[in-house]
Design goal:
The chain is α/β, with parallel strands linked by helices. It contains eleven helices and 17 strands. Strands 3, 4, 5, 8, 9, 16 and 17 form a seven-stranded mixed sheet that branches. A six-stranded parallel sheet has the order 12-11-10-13-14-15, sandwiched between helices. A four-stranded antiparallel sheet has the order 1-2-6-7, with no helix packed on it. α5 (about 205-215) links the parallel β10 and β11. The longest helix has 13 residues, at about 205-215. The two termini are about 25 Å apart.
């Protein structure tokens, strides 16, 4: 382990210069890691729907130029002052919401919302509110304090998880966000019980991960709702027993769900990022104990509205960030589950692309033709 001064690295990064504009391969300078930070050589990164939402600037003010990407795996290239848990050469997963292990939230045992290393929205590093990327001396902004669409990146040591050398980095990068978020929503947030009925709105990677988690927990019926008919067959592989396309029914979808479940599902999950759909998911739950979990990042209209009677009759609405997992504490166990073949990851990877083809990944996701595109960096 060494904390000697490291040079600036010049490497390629896919830079977004404006909302919705194709990413441009640029030569960027990556600063050395500052205290409690590590610099990572990215091996693989996958495209998440939230990257698309932020790239289109649908959920937050535009911040450009910017390097997106947060679902990634890599190898520690260098470490900053004070870092003791990582060494050069360690294999790691990046995480978009960190765990300092010292703040009130981290020590509560009740939450994974770190007060120090929580979701970063301003395009800078947590520690000093500055960037570690630049082009010709001008700053290039981060995304979620990760920015994995670059051959090298710098993250806080609390925003990375060490993994074993035998874990395939080109697969487990999906545990950095989508797959872990869905499994955690099913297991930690909802705590799905055996024999229960589940309805999932949105059958992307997160929704299908919820389905996988529900299947493992022994749910008797898992209903998937999506407007893309091609999702029907794919969903069966992850445990979905019934597929409902709202476009095929003259009834409101919540009425369909209540009718086919004899009064509503035990659990419903909103995995689209549509606050109006949260209301639909609530109405699809049963009276008395119905639980709705929302996981999606809303693109527009962040406010949620619902009739008070839905709650008066016993329904509950819960939010879920990263499936409730405390990332540094809990992710290694998920990696081990994958290595023991207890959870599926490979089946979510529909495309493998080289870094220079990253814009194709954006096209595929916008067209609804992929689950996860894994982007491989040059070796």
């Amino acid at each position: 382990m060494t904390t000697s001064i490291k040079p600036i690295i010049t490497c390629r990064a896919a830079v977004a210069w404006g909302a919705g504009e194709p990413l441009v391969m640029e030569e960027v300078e990556v600063s050395p890691p500052q205290p409690m930070e590590i610099r990572i050589r990215v091996v693989c990164t996958s495209l998440c729907r939230s990257d698309i939402t932020a790239w289109l600037s649908q959920a937050q003010p535009p911040i450009f130029p910017r390097i997106f990407g947060h679902e990634a795996s890599g190898i520690v290239e260098s470490i900053g002052e004070g870092v003791t848990e990582f060494e050069e050469g360690d294999h790691v997963l990046t995480i978009f919401t960190g765990e300092c292990m010292r703040c009130r939230q981290c020590t509560s045992g009740k939450s994974n919302i770190c007060q120090v290393l929580g979701l970063e929205r301003k395009g800078v590093m947590h520690s000093d509110q500055k960037t570690r990327f630049s082009i010709k001396g001008k700053p290039v902004y981060h995304y979620c304090a990760v920015s994995s669409f670059s051959e090298y990146t710098v993250v806080h040591s609390g925003c990375a998880v060490k993994v074993g050398l035998t874990a395939p980095l080109e697969k487990i990068c999906l545990l950095s966000c989508g797959v872990a978020a869905g499994l955690g929503a099913a297991w930690k947030v909802a705590d799905i019980s055996e024999g229960s009925t589940v309805v999932i709105f949105g059958l992307g990677t997160v929704g299908l991960s919820v389905a996988q988690g529900a299947k493992i927990r022994g749910a008797s019926r898992i209903i998937g709702v999506d407007t893309n008919p091609e999702k029907s067959e794919k969903a069966k592989a992850f445990g979905v027993t019934d597929f409902v396309n709202p476009n095929d029914s003259n009834e409101p979808i919540q009425q369909v769900i209540k009718r086919i479940t004899n009064g509503g599902a035990d659990y419903s999950f909103e995995c689209i990022g549509d606050t109006g759909m949260i209301n639909t998911a609530l109405q699809s739950c049963c009276d008395g104990w119905g639980l709705t979990v929302t996981l999606g990042v809303p693109k527009v209209k962040p406010e949620v509205t619902a009739h008070y009677a839905l709650f008066l009759t016993g329904r509950t609405l819960r939010g879920s960030l990263f499936g409730g997992w405390k990332p540094k504490s809990d992710l290694p166990a998920l990696v081990d589950m994958y290595l023991r073949e207890e959870i599926q990851i490979d089946e979510f990877i529909t495309h493998n692309l080289q870094f220079e083809d990253i814009n194709k990944a954006f096209d595929l996701m916008e067209e609804g033709k992929c689950l996860r595109c894994v982007i491989h960096m040059p070796k």
